[in-house]
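Collaborator request, handled under Task 6.
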Amino acid sequence: MQPAAFVFDAYGTLFDVHSAAARHADALGEKWVALSELWRTKQLEYTWVRALAGKHCSFWKVTKDGLDYAIASVGGIDSGLRGELLASYRQLAAYPEVPECLKALKARGSAVAILSNGDPDMLADAVNSAGLADAFDAVLSVEDAGVYKPSHRVYQLATARFGVVPQAVSFQSSNRWDIAGAKSFGFRTVWINRTGRPDEYLDLAADEVLKDLTGLLT
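Structure tokens returned to the collaborator:
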């Protein structure tokens, strides 16, 4: 059956989180990959700690805090690049197949939405800079739930927005932990495994595993 809504995680699924550092690879030198990986790792870690501790803060704060840790840990990074890296994070590159896939899914009659840890203004910047302003029926932020994924309160934002049961939603994420959370909530889940990572959380298996979004159209 055609899902009532295709709901997408944003960071790492629609938008390449490493494109911010890649844009400054010449200035960062060979450390840019290590910096970007650690930045992403700490950004996510800080969301989990905040959610478990009941100390919610903006995603922009954990993004800045994650970058500061990565810069301090990697070392040898020009401090003047911090502002440029943060500015680039607000204009991440979309993966190549994203625009046409979203357009095709919407043409089939399903709603298309984002459900993200990102702040509303961060998501607006990313969507607009990627030229996707007309691609979504809704852009949902965890700020409306006051807690980060994988809290069920976040996934409920999608069912409430579209007035459907969880099983009517196809949820796509590149983050395996996010897929586990969405699966436990009751969504049909599609893990976008762009980098061929090994599976985990086997008791909360994805319903489908794809290498990119084009598989949604078959």
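The cover message to the collaborator said: "The first strand starts at residue 5 and ends at 8. The chain has a mean pLDDT of 97. Please let us know whether this matches your experimental observations."
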